[in-house]
Specification:
The complex is a heterodimer of chains A (502) and B (99). With 502 residues, chain A is mostly helical. Helices cover 72% and strands 3% of the residues of chain A. Chain A has one domain. Chain A is built from 20 helices and five strands. Chain B has 99 residues and is mainly alpha-helical. Chain B has one domain: Orthogonal Bundle (Helix Hairpins), CATH 1.10.287. The longest helix of chain B has 31 residues. Classes of the chains: A mainly alpha (502), B mainly alpha (99). Chains A and B meet through α6, α7 and α10 of A and α1, α2 and α3 of B. Chain B: Pfam families: Oxidored_q2.
């Protein structure tokens, strides 16, 4: 006799709404006249995200529980991570709504008459919105998934749309398509490792649930556990671009359309770190002696490598890509800490880093010449004299990345390093502080180039952003500023929400 | 035949796939190697389901097949677009981003 599985729809509502919005977006693509699509798609995306946020607010105080037959944990940290993803997506969708960054027809060969025709007709495909919503839905599912199937499916649901989105840039299309190819091949490679690791964890524990894997510790063959942890970690560390699985990051960040880079850099980090934190805090907490040394070494390598290689970059998007690698290293020290402070600090870090990143890439999208975006750092020289406001905001965001006091980045780094210190990882803290100092050098070098170097005679200028981009960049910057001046607003919240269902 | 042999076979297939991704140059072949790795993981799942005598591993295998099918759709779309732009599917030719 088969019994139907019971699903708690009220707890799953935030994710279901986002997925529902994505499906509605696909139908709009199929049935609505071309002229109305862009407006309707934007409304659907904004509506779905706002509704999902409202549903998350409704369930924020419920006690931790599982939904969907123990495959999904709706707990405090899960709700916080989902809310972070939705908030970041809400701000990112306004950047994405500036459609002139995206290819008019993705299937047209670059430079062909077909492409020129679609550009002249000003017709514009709007499939980015449903793809974006599917990615957001997957990112909401990934940090709350509590068994290996759900983790794998969520990983693919948010990765596959991102592979496509990376290839949809209007200008420099060959670069963009190349970024999509690299991201796809390396991403699929990493998820194969993830799946193979999952198979060995299942072989080890006899169950696919994270709590079952935790409970099996000490009773089963530890070789399988070690193989499982190592291979699973390869897949996860790829997503957060930790060294040595980082090689895709600069290429994809540079090649993808800038609004997508902004979205991807902010939200993928939140989703992937959410899942890593859950897997290591819930599933592998018992076996910490097996993995802590490995992850510590990777965190140290990631911090040092990201900070040092960023110095040599000549392209602003590539530089921020290496900076995001360094930040992945800092965040990994919160995973290694394996205590409640580490979790709370990671939640706070992900939130502030996400908004700072969104704002920074939003501003990069504004600096253009007649041929499109200008990302060459040498051509940013003297931008502070041409447009002081935008350059000033960008400088502030760089200082926040660097972790200068009075910025949100400082509070986040301080919290995460003190959590690592409490757990006894002194080496990690020392390397982290040194890497931050190295990183501060290249951020400040960019600020000096923008403000204190005489402008060369160049056609580069800051375009007047559309209302949507302006709102988006303003919100993200304000959140970053406020959290720097009054961190307790969110720090207390992160502390209250730092709790996984075990 | 000892059931562990299926695990060895799975490990061998996974290794062949993993090496293939690194050494082969045609993106279609690279992609086929990735599919081989996914299938190796599937074989491991089914074998472990037999060893643990429960059905969860077989359920995972079905999900993996569906996900792999989705991956083929996205992957071939990207590879075909690249091929139409450049008349080449070699991963070595895709080197504009290296500067």
């Amino acid at each position: 006799m088969l019994t139907a599985p019971s699903l708690s729809y009220s707890l799953l509502a935030p994710m279901l709404i986002v997925f529902g919005g994505a499906v509605a977006g696909v139908l709009v693509e199929a049935f609505l006249a071309k002229t109305h699509r862009a407006a309707v798609q934007l409304t659907i995306s904004l509506g779905a995200l706002l509704l999902a946020l409202q549903q998350l607010w409704r369930i924020r105080d419920l006690s931790s529980t599982t939904a969907a037959v123990n495959s999904v944990a709706i707990d405090k940290a899960g709700i916080f991570l989902q809310a972070t993803v939705v908030l970041l997506a809400l701000v990112a969708v306004l950047l994405i709504a500036d459609q002139d960054n995206f290819v008019a027809q993705a299937s047209a060969v670059p430079g062909s008459s077909e492409e020129i025709n679609t550009l002249q007709q000003k017709s514009q495909q709007t499939e980015i919105f449903p793809l974006f919503l599917f990615a957001v839905g997957g990112m909401m599912l990934f940090p709350v998934a509590t068994d290996l199937i759900t983790l794998f499916v969520a990983l693919e649901v948010f990765s596959l749309p991102l592979y496509l989105l990376a290839g949809l840039s209007r200008r420099k299309r060959l670069l963009s398509q190349e970024a999509a190819l690299k991201y796809f091949l390396l991403g699929a490679y990493a998820s194969a490792f993830f799946l193979f690791g999952a198979a060995f964890l299942y072989g080890y524990a006899g169950t696919i649930s994270l709590s079952g894997i935790s409970a099996a510790f000490g009773t089963a063959n530890e070789v399988f556990l070690l193989i499982g942890i190592v291979f699973l970690s390869v897949g996860l560390l790829f997503k957060i671009s930790a060294v040595p699985f980082h090689s895709w990051t600069p290429d994809v960040y540079q090649g993808a359309p800038t609004p997508i880079t902004a979205f991807m850099a902010a939200c993928t980090k939140v989703a992937a770190f959410g899942a890593i934190l859950r897997i290591f805090y819930v599933g592998f907490a018992q076996s910490q002696t097996l993995w802590q040394p490995i992850i510590t070494v990777i965190a140290i390598l990631t911090m040092i490598f990201g900070s040092i290689v960023a110095i040599t970059q000549r392209d602003i998007k590539r530089m921020l890509a290496y900076s995001s690698i360094a930040h992945a290293g800092f965040l990994l020290s919160g995973v290694v800490a394996l205590n409640k402070d580490g979790l709370a600090a990671s939640l706070f870090y992900l939130f502030t880093y996400g908004f700072t990143t969104l704002a920074a890439f939003g501003i990069i999208g504004l600096v253009k010449d007649s041929a499109g975006e200008v990302t060459d750092l040498n051509r940013w020289i003297g931008l502070g004299k041409k447009s002081p406001l935008v350059a000033g905001v960008f400088a502030f965001l760089l200082l926040s990345f660097a972790g200068i006091p009075l910025t949100s980045g400082f509070i986040a780094k301080f919290a995460i390093f003190s959590a690592a210190y409490k757990s006894g990882n002194i080496a990690l803290v020392v390397v982290g502080v040194l890497a931050s100092a190295i990183a501060a050098f290249f951020y400040i070098r960019v600020i000096i180039m923008i403000f204190f170097t005489d402008p060369v005679n160049d056609s580069v200028s800051v375009i007047i952003p559309s209302v949507k981009s302006r709102i988006s960049i303003t919100i993200a910057t304000l959140i970053s500023i406020i959290l720097g001046l009054a961190p307790s607003l969110l720090l207390n919240g992160a502390d209250n929400f730092a709790n996984f269902l075990r | 035949m000892a059931i562990a042999n299926y695990l060895y076979l799975s490990a061998i297939l996974f290794t062949i796939g993993a090496i293939g991704v690194v050494v082969r140059r045609n993106s279609i072949v690279v992609f086929m190697c990735i599919e081989l790795m996914l299938n190796a993981a599937n074989l491991a799942f089914v074998t472990f389901a037999r060893i643990n005598s429960n059905l969860e591993g077989q359920v995972v295998a079905f999900f993996t097949m569906v996900v792999a099918a989705c991956e083929v759709v996205v992957g071939l779309a990207i590879i075909v677009t690249i091929y139409r732009s450049r008349r080449s599917a070699s991963v070595d030719d895709a080197s504009l981003l290296k500067r």
